[in-house]
Specification:
9-stranded antiparallel sheet, alpha+beta, 206 residues, Pnp Oxidase, Chain A
Length: 206
């Protein structure tokens, strides 16, 4: 099993050589101050032609390999990640006046890991994953609801398996920037860049 990052109480001094642990601490704080949106982040992707797109996703797992989210592989973000597997995440926590920007390469999770997470989802969400042709045109909502009813009948009394077109992605960070609000818009910005297994750190102008 990969080493999990502990969410310890916040430290008064950040270790520039270990931005992932600093981020995990902030994430734990945000889960307390913003329980409805602490793990929400804007995910930015771009297609092969460079056209960008952004949407909010929920980060479901994190360890030293990276940050994990789940989606339909045929959704717009899934298609774009096939074409261009580089992406960025942006977390904004207004109660903490903190922002974290994370960039890196995205890879699909092994099927066993996607299976394990799918089994933990509420049954309604499992059915919904089968019913939704995510990002495809939908004529009327009634068609979606009819598909849900048909799937409920199909899987009645049985475990709902993970759809083959649905699963997880891991963003492996190579750039992490911490932003902290300051008076007069003289914000603090610290950029960490991965070089091999090590991180370098520098301050940025606000």
């Amino acid at each position: 099993m990969p080493e999990e990052i502990r969410a310890d109480p916040p430290s008064t001094s950040a270790d520039p050589s270990d931005p992932l642990t600093e981020f995990a601490t902030l994430l734990a704080r945000a889960a307390l101050t913003e329980p409805e949106a602490g793990t929400a982040a804007t995910l930015a992707t771009a297609d092969a032609g460079g056209r960008p797109a952004a949407r909010v996703v929920l980060i479901k797992q994190m360890d030293r390999r990276g940050l994990v989210f789940f989606t339909n592989h045929d959704s717009r973000k899934g298609r774009e990640l096939r074409q261009n597997p580089q992406a960025a995440l942006c977390f904004w926590w207004p109660t903490l006046e903190r922002q974290v920007r994370i960039e890196g390469r995205v890879t699909r999770l092994p099927e066993t890991e996607s299976d394990a997470y799918f089994r933990s989802r509420p049954r309604g969400s499992q059915i919904g994953a089968w019913a939704s042709r995510q990002s495809a045109p939908l004529g009327q909502r009634a068609a979606l609801l009819a598909e849900v009813r048909a799937l409920e009948a199909r899987f009645a009394g049985a475990e709902v398996p993970r759809p083959p077109f649905w699963g997880g992605y891991r963003l492996e960070p190579d750039r992490i920037e911490f932003w902290e609000g300051r008076e007069d818009r003289l914000h603090e910005r610290r950029l960490h860049t991965r070089q091999g297994d090590a991180w370098t750190s520098q301050h940025l102008y606000p």
